[in-house]
Amino acid sequence: MEVSGGLDLTPVWLTVKLAGLTVGLLLILGMPLAWWLARTRSPLKIPVEAVTALPLVLPPTVLGFYLLIFLGASGPAGQLWSRIAGPDRTHPGRSTGRSPGRSAATPEARR
Known about the structure:
This protein is mainly α. It has two domains: 1-57; 58-111, no CATH class. 66% of the residues lie in helices and 0% in strands. The longest helix is centred in the N-terminal third of the chain and has 30 residues, at 10-39.
């Protein structure tokens, strides 16, 4: 979306849409979870509180690294997904030993 001055507002609109979607999703998920945490006496309360406090305690890069380990091809969720969907659908390029981003013309791919 361009304005007459040549300013591209596409990133701004994308940010507004993403922020709105995130707020809506967190309200739908967070309000019932907060209500449950405030009222429950379940033994699961402490672990759930710990997991929900992680974004406040750990830096985003640390959480992102742990998510990559958990969801990666050799992580628990990645292995489960490989068993469900099959390795070819989950991790393209794994069967050839080449990542999807490398072309056959690169020196790394010829090794």
